[in-house]
Amino acid sequence: xxxxxxxxxxxxxxxxxxxxxxxxxxxxxxxxxxxxxxxxxxxxxxxxxxxxxxxxxxxxxxxxxxxxxxxxxxxxxxxxxxxxxxxxxxxxxxxxxxxxxxxxxxxxxxxxxxxxxxxxxxxxxxxxxxxxxxxxxxxxxxxxxxxxxxxxxxxxxxxxxxxxxxxxxxxxxxxxxxxxxxxxxxxxxxxxxxxxxxxxxxxxxxxxxxxxxxxxxxxxxxxxxxxxxxxxxxxxxxxxxxxxxxxxxxxxxxxxxxxxxxxxxxxxx
Length: 269
Prior knowledge:
Blueprint: H1 2-20, H2 29-40, H3 43-57, H4 71-85, H5 88-128, H6 131-170, H7 173-198, H8 204-216, H9 221-268
GO biological process, one term: phosphoenolpyruvate-dependent sugar phosphotransferase system
InterPro entries: GatZ_KbaZ_carbometab, PTS_IIC_man
Pfam families: EII-Sor
């Protein structure tokens, strides 16, 4: 019961909090996993699962009406099941993707239900200038909406742990090994999807520089991050000086044109 409550609480605070206070990224796996791991007494597993799922969901983006997956709910349930059942990161990754896709569809259904039913009320309060009632209704709808949404992981954790454990026990070892291999590949797929959206020929040199630093020179990620930070500062300073020089050239050209105009006016005066 306590584990189910903690999973539901994390979904309410992280996913709901993200929707309440703006684009805070509280729903991201890198936040949800360690937070739930801290509450359930296994921070290390929470960190591992959160980092692994973040690299997967990093490249998953909802565009318009095309919904992909809900990473917050997926991470909470995957982390909760992994810690409670001892399945580890591989089992969590195998569970996260289908849970995330289903969770996104349920979230959209709840959203459409609440938005469709409450939109006329919001319009009426706004037209009548009832600001306090509008604000109270806003927070009330938010609380009811995400309370209902957090009941999904609560009951899934409460009644589904035994079913998930039985299903995991029924999976042959060869399939679990395959899932483990696939799970190790999924972070690379997520990074590739993100890189495909961000790729430009101008940044290709930095991409291959990172490969050399990590793959051949065996530098730790902290050292690579420091090098990247220093490089970013140098590039920013260079761009600043170039912009400053360009502005100076523009100012000189404008002044020269003004002097020519003045000389012409003096000549014809």
